[in-house]
Amino acid sequence: MLWIRPWHLRWGATDAEVQRPLPGDELVPNPKLAATHVITIRASAAEIWPWRVQMGQGRGGFYSYDWLENLFGLDIHNADRIIPGFQNLKVGDIIPMAPGGFGPPVVVLEPDRVLVLGGTLDTRTGRTVNVNDAMPGTFFRSSWVFFLDPVDERTTRLIE
């Protein structure tokens, strides 16, 4: 754990990418945990974007190990194509992470560039707390960003 955890918290990221401010950072001003994962994709940001906006349970999956997610009963199935019906994502939409629709809302969406999920979750009900609601006694605040950083016309760094 002493070696693996620090590596995993910044998997694939340069020092500059770890320290770089990203959209959504303001949602959790003093995080108890922060991780930066980065990969290089041989595609333009415009080619990657349709895959990002269709993610979610019952949608395009999360492009990870669906067999592992399904061990927990999440019923995840990763798409192998662009699904037109899931391309109209907008701020306020929920990205479901499990059956029943539980998941974070979209809080920032800039096509071909940034998708931020997050907010404040009431840990008793599992529901997102609206900005004008009273803060529950126990809550979880999160920000999950997918930032497409073009390297050139055919290469993009996906910073998560």
Summarize the structure.
The chain is built from 4 helices and 6 strands.
Account of the 3D structure:
It is a single chain. The chain is an alpha+beta fold. It has a single domain, classed as 2-Layer Sandwich (Alpha-D-Glucose-1,6-Bisphosphate, Chain A, domain 4). It is 16% helix and 24% strand. Strands 1, 2, 3, 4, 5 and 6 form a 6-stranded antiparallel β-sheet that branches. A hairpin with a 3-residue loop joins strand 2 (106-110) and strand 3 (114-122). The radius of gyration is 16 Å and the shape is globular.
The SSE string, one letter per element, is HHEHHEEEEE
Rounded to the nearest angstrom, the distance between the terminal CA atoms is 22 Å
Strand content: 15-25%
The number of helices is 4
Number of strands: 6
What CATH calls the topology is Alpha-D-Glucose-1,6-Bisphosphate, Chain A, domain 4
- Helix-and-strand structural type: alpha+beta
| Overall radius of gyration | 16 Å
User: Which percent bin holds the helix content?
Assistant: 10-25%
The CATH architecture name reads: 2-Layer Sandwich
Number of domains: 1
Shape designation: globular
- Give the rounded overall mean pLDDT: 89
Write the layout of secondary structure elements.
Elements: H1 4-8, H2 15-19, E1 38-41, H3 45-53, H4 66-71, E2 106-110, E3 114-122, E4 128-129, E5 139-152, E6 155-159
Antiparallel strand pairs: 1-6, 2-3, 3-4, 3-5, 5-6
Overview features:
alpha+beta, single chain, 160 residues, 4 helices
